[in-house]
Amino acid sequence: MTHQPSHRFERGTDGPKVIVVGVDGSGSSLRAAAYAYGLARRQRALLAAVYVQPVMAAGAALGAPVADATEEIAEDLVARIREADERLGGPSGIRWEFHTFRGDPYNGLVRAADDLRADAVVVGASERAGHRLVGSVAVRLVKAGRWPVTVVP
């Protein structure tokens, strides 16, 4: 009897091939990005940096330029990643992509991880005190149990 190779996607067979890191410009997300960068370099994996642009209905209703502000954050994050990539090994250091999604961070990261077939997700620990009671994005990702999740302090 011969075994036919499966054409299904398998997780965890040869180490991570795609690492998703959530970035939002906070100190903990930048530390998570640095950690994920090193992990991607060592594993020769694709690093997918994901910024989830918040939807702020109240701000938009009051005439606040929400889209402009979130686009500026995304552009700043891409510039920071490029600078770090050049500083840490040049353009050939690792393969990386930058993705933006709109919505709440948890659902945006879940969508990104699913769409990109992530083998691992890296996020920064929440810096907001209220998340200790309600639950942070990191805790929700861990509870989802769909990927290994690393939470960087």
TrEMBL record:
Residues 17-153 form the UspA domain. Gene3D superfamilies: HUPs. It comes from the Bacteria. Belongs to the universal stress protein A family. This is Universal stress protein. It comes from Streptomyces prasinosporus.
